[in-house]
Specification:
Length: 924
């Protein structure tokens, strides 16, 4: 089975945009503009009113290369196919015909224009998916690099080339209308200006030419000094402003009337690939490959723009992720872009950034080009956090690649702290960056007051987190003679455990009185191989030690002995974590496999493989999600724990067996997060033209049959409130008795028949011409309304159904009638089966009820209902049954029926318990 026993892909966090230019469109139903961005093989739709993620697209078989949208469909080019999506999830159209990947799309009235990498232009009829026209271009003479439809130019498009040429084509006649004067650089962008006949041409050299295509004359020409023109847009709210973007993240605003630069904006850390002014609004939307989407508003006194809304994630893959707090709602993530971020698993609007690591935060803020900040620190390689002192001082300590400094961060204030922890022996202010010793591992004490840091020189030092003062050293002169690989402390600040590349695991007293140097360890364990990393579950005092021989050891901190050994990984272990209840150990390694080990039984109970190596993983404190980070992926992947919402059968797996390959999760919008179990399909194994059938199959509802098998005992689907408290009905009535006396119901005239029961109603069937009255009597011959006394009985409706079953032996109608009644009415019907004590029944009817119970037990249906009805019957009429010989003779039949059904159920239960016990002891 190509799936995981315990985890299923849930969703991905932290994806916003990439290098593909986004598309902006207006949706009438929502009355707002939406931005469609690309995130690899899927796309996101953000509403401009609040920048909420309102839609996420399906996974495509290849990376998306172009996105466009009109008033009805969203067109997505993935590989050599083009997909037309409605509401981002309904696949309406698929356009096939290109051999090379498509890179340009342009909706054109009722047509769609596409251009692939071989400069083959195709025109499609949107409704029929048929090819309308095909125009090949020679890539070595005219390689299409940009396309635009000039306003008011019917059936015409303007093409720009990598060679610098421009051509105007009439698509209806398939003729070249005009060939413009070539430019000296590649045409990067073509954008329609608010003025008719004017097209803005952005070149690779940085030139921007406003060209009047009617006369082939430049109206205006400007030049930006920040690199190629990656995007152009015009304001349409009455201000003659043109915005141009460059490859270094700069956006320039040009006054078209004065032909000057109004202002500049450092919008992104990377190239600006998306630039769109919203129609008739002073709002600008920008996107970039740095995984960010921003909205700027022009409301400053000098006409400049300020940041209004933004959505962003890591610009580079995460290096370390950890859940923070006990709620399981927030994940702290460190990325290769030197940033520390908080991702919310509830709503992505709650995501925030703690900033980027800097040697001098004040100086970094003054830097205009954030990507060239000289004070930027190397990426965070590992961090740890505690919640005990979140509100008082910094609660996160972080290591940086190749640095001796350890930085602190405040989770509560959402910023980097002021401390740079360096031992006095390693302080070399002039050459601090190039110092050979570097911090390699750390741990925060459970109280949040201390941080213990290990170094590549073998030193282990302890600092106070609040003041940054050095408090203690472990070992004299060093704790180990080799690279420190892992550190841990217990819940009560009694022990510090250090592990190094020398294969030694040392247990130190956390502090000793009257000295700042802990010279000798309490105990030392020689594990034989170099230690790779150490992870701890403090509540259960279990220490996980990963070794360089790809094995894992579990050490009990109380007894300081090895209690478990796990083998099975085929690469260096990169991270490990415990489940909240410490029953599972989850590990990952460079073999791209995630393994789940059951600690009590010491078996491998689950494993799965991913396409890209997992660099970090963490388990939610509530146990509902496993979060993973992967190489070359800038997001965080969440895997749902299936054991929380379905029955999962765990069995031992062979550690050397091959793990199934799973696809990484895709992102979900807020509305889609409710359907966690929504089936994700693999488009690699499925033709896209079959996707519509898949969507229809998803909506099919499975209705279970009334009884799966006659060999099984089937419980009733009747609400438990109708039968569960039948024996305690007297107590409930006394507890719920009314405070005021009940009013006496109106008495009906004696000649109007009524229906027997608690509700007062007339028998409408007893009309002229009807031959049967409610009491069971017959109208006398000659049409007289006088009931014959010899035909009168007082049976209730349920009693009459049982009376009829005496001859037919069909108890289905009686059972169905009783199942529709409430508890009080069931008590009334069963109570009135006796002819004694003012009852309206008879002894044969009571016998029929007992036969009905035997029938229900024999059918093996409504099993608990039969038991409940029988219990009430025996409680109410036990003395009558014992005193009557005919009724007493039926008791052995009921007893035999119960024994037969219970023995069948007991055999299956014992068989199941035996199988489970055998599987637990199974060592295969």
């Amino acid at each position: 089975m190509n799936s995981s026993h315990l985890f299923q892909p849930n969703r991905a966090l932290g994806y916003v945009s990439n290098h593909i230019p986004p598309s902006v469109r207006y949706i009438d139903q929502r009355r707002e503009n939406v931005v469609i961005t690309c995130v690899g093989r899927s796309f996101h739709v953000y509403g401009c009113n609040s920048f909420r993620l309102i839609r996420t697209g399906r996974i495509h078989p290849a990376n998306i290369t172009a996105i466009a949208a009109d008033g009805f469909l969203t067109y997505v080019a993935a590989g050599n196919l083009i997909y037309g999506w409605r509401s981002s999830v309904e696949l309406r159209k698929v356009y096939r015909g290109h051999v090379k990947p498509v890179r340009l799309l342009l909706p054109f009235a009722k047509h769609l224009i596409s251009v692939d990498e071989s400069s083959l232009l195709k025109i499609w009829i949107v409704s029929t998916q048929e090819l309308y026209l095909e125009i090949p271009f020679a890539a070595h003479t005219f390689e299409i690099s940009a396309i635009v439809h000039p306003a008011s130019y019917k059936n015409k498009i303007l093409l720009g080339s990598a060679q610098g040429g421009l051509q105007l084509w009439n698509l209806k006649s398939c003729k070249l209308v005009h060939k413009f004067t070539d430019f000296d650089s590649k045409v990067m962008q073509l954008e329609q200006a608010p003025a008719l006949d004017v097209i803005a041409v952005g070149l690779h050299s940085g030139r921007i030419v406003l060209l009047n295509i009617q006369y082939d004359q430049p109206v205006m020409e400007v030049h930006q000094d920040w690199g190629p023109v990656t995007a152009i847009s015009f304001r349409t709210d009455g201000t003659a402003i043109m915005a141009s973007a460059s490859s270094n993240g700069q956006v320039v605003f040009w006054d078209l009337e004065e032909k000057t630069i109004v202002s500049t904006l450092m919008a992104h850390d990377d190239s600006v690939t998306g630039l769109h002014f919203l129609p008739n609004e002073p709002l600008l939307v920008t996107s970039s490959p740095d995984n960010s989407l921003k909205m700027w508003i022009f409301d400053l006194s000098d006409g400049g723009a300020r940041l209004l809304r933004f959505r962003e994630g890591h610009a580079a893959p995460p290096t370390c992720i950890r859940y923070h707090g006990s709620s399981g709602r927030n994940i702290v993530s460190a990325g290769e872009d030197s940033s520390l971020r908080i991702f919310s698993t509830v709503a992505e609007t709650l995501n925030c950034s703690l900033g980027k690591a800097s040697y001098n935060r004040k100086a970094s803020k003054k830097q205009k080009k954030k990507s060239e900040d000289p004070f930027r620190m190397p990426p965070i390689s590992y961090f740890t956090s505690e919640v005990t002192r979140d509100k008082e001082w910094d609660s996160i300590a972080a290591l940086h690649q190749g640095l001796v400094q350890v930085t602190t961060w405040s989770y509560d204030k959402r910023r980097m702290g002021d401390l740079h922890l360096v031992p006095e022996a390693f302080q070399n202010k002039q050459h601090k960056k190039d110092f050979s010793v570097m911090a390699t591992c750390l741990c925060l004490s459970h109280c949040g007051n201390f941080v213990v840091i290990g170094y590549s020189s073998g030193h282990v030092e302890r600092f106070n987190v609040q003041s940054g003062i050095h408090r203690a050293s472990y070992g004299a002169p060093t704790a180990h003679n080799d690279y420190i690989r892992g550190l841990s402390s217990d819940n009560l600040n009694q022990l510090v455990v250090s592990g190094a590349a020398d294969g030694l695991l040392k247990f130190w007293s956390f502090k000793q009185p009257y000295t700042t140097v802990v010279k000798t360890p309490i105990e030392t364990l020689d594990l034989g191989d170099p230690i790779t990393l150490i992870r701890t579950h403090r509540e259960s005092a279990i220490l996980c030690v990963a070794l360089d021989d790809f094995t894992l050891r579990l050490v009990d901190l109380d007894t300081r002995v090895i209690v478990r050994r796990f083998d099975g990984h085929r690469g260096t272990i990169t991270d490990a974590c415990f489940s909240p209840d410490s029953r599972w150990l989850i590990t990952t390694a460079q073999d791209c496999v995630v393994k789940v080990w059951d600690i009590p039984s010491s078996y491998l109970i689950d494993h799965f493989r991913v396409s890209h190596m997992c660099t970090s993983l963490t388990m939610s404190p509530t146990g509902d999600f496993l979060a993973t980070a992967h190489v070359d992926y800038r997001g965080i992947n969440l895997w749902a724990n299936k054991s929380l919402f379905t029955n999962v059968t765990l069995r031992g797996l062979k550690p050397e067996s091959d793990a199934p390959l799973l696809d990484l999760p895709t992102a979900l919008c807020d509305e889609q997060q409710d359907g966690i179990g929504f089936p994700l399909y693999n488009t690699k194994q499925m033709e896209v033209d079959e996707l519509e059938d898949v969507f229809e199959e998803i909506n099919l509802e499975y209705s279970s049959p009334p009884q799966l098998s006659s060999e099984l005992i089937t419980m009733s689907n009747v609400a438990a409130s109708r039968w569960q408290n039948l024996l305690n009905l007297d107590i409930i009535k006394k507890r719920n008795r009314p405070r005021q006396a009940l009013t006496k119901p109106k008495s009906a005239p004696f000649f109007l028949p009524t229906v027997a029961g608690l509700d007062f109603e007339f028998d409408l069937q007893a009309t002229i011409g009807d031959k049967t009255s409610t009491a069971g009597g017959k109208i006398a011959e000659g049409g007289s309304r006088i009931i014959e006394s010899n035909q009168v009985d007082h049976l209730t409706p349920f009693g009459r159904l049982l009376n009829a079953a005496l001859t037919t032996e069909e108890y289905g109608k009686a059972i169905d009638h009783l199942m529709k009644l409430g508890p009080s009415m069931i008590d009334y019907e069963i109570r009135n089966l006796t002819p004694f004590n003012s009852g309206s029944g008879s002894l044969p009817v009571m016998g029929a009820f007992m036969h009905m119970i035997v029938y229900m037990l024999g059918q093996r249906k409504e099993f608990e209902l039969a038991q409940s009805y029988l219990s009430l019957f025996l409680k109410l009429h036990g003395r009558t049954i014992v005193e009557n010989e005919q009724l007493s003779e039926l008791l052995p039949a009921i007893e035999d029926a119960q024994k037969a059904e219970w023995s069948a159920l007991e055999d299956k239960l014992l068989y199941g318990l035996g199988v489970v016990s055998n599987l637990r002891n199974f060592s295969g």
